[in-house]
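We emphasize that the prediction below concerns an isolated chain of 486 residues; any contacts that depend on oligomerization or on bound cofactors are therefore not represented. The input was used exactly as deposited, without trimming of termini.
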Amino acid sequence: MAIKEELAGILGAKNLISDAESLKPYSRDYSLSTPAMPSYIVKPKNVEQIQKVVKLANKNKLPIVPCSSGVHFRGDTIPVQGGLVMDLSGMDRILKIDDRNRMVRVEAGVTWEQLQPELAKHDMMALAPLLPHHLKSALISHLERDPILIPKFEYTDTLMTVEVVLPEGEIFKTGSACVPGFPDKSFSDGVNPSGPGNIMWTRMLQGAQGTLGVVTWGQFKIEYRPKVDKTFFIPFNNVKDATAFVARVQRRMIGEECLILNNVNLAAMLANKWPRDFNALRKKLPPWTLILVLGGGVRFPEEKIEYEEDALKEIAAELSVPDLPTSLPAAPGVDKDMADMLRGAWPRERTYWKFAYKGSCQDLFFHTVMSKAQAFYQSIGELAAKHGYPAADLGFYVQPVVYGGACHFECNFYYDPDNAEEVNMIKSIYTAAAEAALDGGAFFSRPYGPVADLVYQRSADYTAELKKIKQLMDPNNIMSPGRLCF
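Result of the prediction step, given as a token string:
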């Protein structure tokens, strides 16, 4: 029997796509990666179908590229060697909201737009990255280690346990979800990340870009939604002063959401009418803004905010920061909405904030210590200017992690995807900036596209060990071949 007939027998004809026009959207994304056409799109509805498809693909050495989100930015779901794209967006059940353990278990297709309103009914919220696209899978955000806006130590690892179909078709559950009978016939809540054995297997799957298996569901931390919020918009003339202030704030464990944006990114998020609002905001906003939300929970919320604000004032006095504004003069009224805005997905009725300026955006991001943020900002700006890209058009986002001991540093290159000259310029800048960042000590914990090649060329021993793991888990190299160092 031909592979197409076998796939149709497993999935049903309507869940198997092979016509060229329907394949095209899966051949490209919003990254600068070269398009590549898959042979088939498969849309399984349950784990049993996933297993059967994986076993068939493994038997025939047919590549599989899993995807769950309805939008992609990093080239990691483009089938560079053809084969199957496994679209899991239809597996979109919220399986369990566990208030007692502050956990939620969701299938791979559950989006941020779907998840956060459902959790709000329980006075809970998932720990979100910065304004995710409404079609972005919440589980994939956790698997990709997207930085969350609340940089507390207890949220360093938000993803606890997962179910994964391994490359030869077996089901594997990590942590305490691995006990027999979970979830239906077990006393385990499946919320402990350790195990089987003493290994945290979930971490091995994070950042793997689908190269080690197909994750079907995951369980991750959620938190009580604050009852009361007070948002500060603290202006700075440079990122050096902003990061120094944030480091003090985080050492005192003050606040909930905490992030730094330059005027380009903040204007892109706040603009309603384009380009008028964006241009006006960019001119009126300070060069850098620290957004800090103080949140009060179930017990004594006003008192919590009061003592945190007192600590914030002490830090401001120590560093001679003259003002702690709770509003943005350039955007009146935004203070009332900012906390809710940061805890949800980007509204589907508005053009996504990274697309509104020029049509597309290429992100360069890595981890570094706070004290190096200014140097990276300057070096990337100078490099962009040398390539003919206006430094004033660069977006920057600094997200403290683990109480401000380090940060996620992100530069956003906005560009017109229909302008071939501009696309080629961004490709050159992006590679050059990545090389310069590596030379400056940047740590790329999630290398995508050309950055992966640069990272693994400099990590021979690490790369060799990764290839050993890949050979053990996926001897026929069917899972997302061509990604990472595989």
